[in-house]
Amino acid sequence: MTNSPADSRPQPAARRRRPERPDLDPRGPRFGAAITAVLLLVVVFLALTGASVAALVLLSVLAALFAWGAFAGAGRHPYGALFKAYVRPRLGPPDALENAAPPTFAQGIGLLVTVTGVVLGLAGLESAVGVSAAVAFVAAFLNAVFDYCLGCQLYLLLVRAGILGRGQTAVAGG
C-alpha cells in the first residue's frame, strides 16, 4: 500500500491532536512534591547562609526537573519513575486516577518561578534565588502535605475562564 501525496501534507492545526497523556496516580505528584519541597528548603537554607553559588546550582537543577515535567508531562517526570518503581508497588491501588494536564501545567508554573530565580541570580541579584525557592517551596509543601496543588487550581481556573482548552474536544472515557 502506498501513501498518496495528500497523506504527506501537513494537517491543519484544528486537526492536529496532542498525544494523549495517561491519567496519573495522584500520589505520584505528591511524592514528587515532597522531594521538591525538601530540595527547595535546602536552596533557601543555602541562600540564607551565604552559599549563593550552591543555592543557584541546586535551583538550576530543580528548574531543569520542572522543565522535564512541564515538557515531557508530569507522568514522565523522574520522580514519577521513582514512585512507580519503589513506592507504588508497596501501596494499594489509588481510589481514582487524575488527568495529567493540571499537574503538567503546575510543573510549568514551577519552571517559571525557578527560572526567574536562576536568571535573576545569574544577573547578580542573589536574594532572588532564595525568594524564588521560598515561593516554589510554599506550593510544593501545600501539594505534598495537604494535597492542594496551586498550579492545578490555576489550570482549572484558566480552563473555566476559557483561556486554556480552547479548540480541544473532550474525549469521553479517555
List the helices and strands and how they pair.
Blueprint: H1 5-8, H2 27-48, H3 52-72, H4 78-87, H5 101-122, H6 127-146, H7 150-160
Helix pairs in contact: 2-3, 2-4, 2-6, 3-5, 5-6, 5-7
Give an overview of the whole structure.
This is DUF4395 domain-containing protein. Keywords: Membrane, Transmembrane, Transmembrane helix. The structure is a single chain. This protein has 174 residues and is mostly helical. The protein has one domain. Helix content is 63%, strand content 0%. α2 runs antiparallel to α3. The two termini are 31 Å apart. The N terminus and C terminus are likely disordered.
Q: What is the makeup of the main sheet?
A: none
SS-based class: mainly alpha
Query: Could you tell me how far the N terminus lies from the C terminus, measured between alpha carbons in angstroms?
Result: 31 Å
Q: How many DSSP H or I helices?
A: 7
Helix content, binned percent? 55-70%
Order of SSEs = HHHHHHH
Mean of residue pLDDT values: 86
Bulk shape: globular
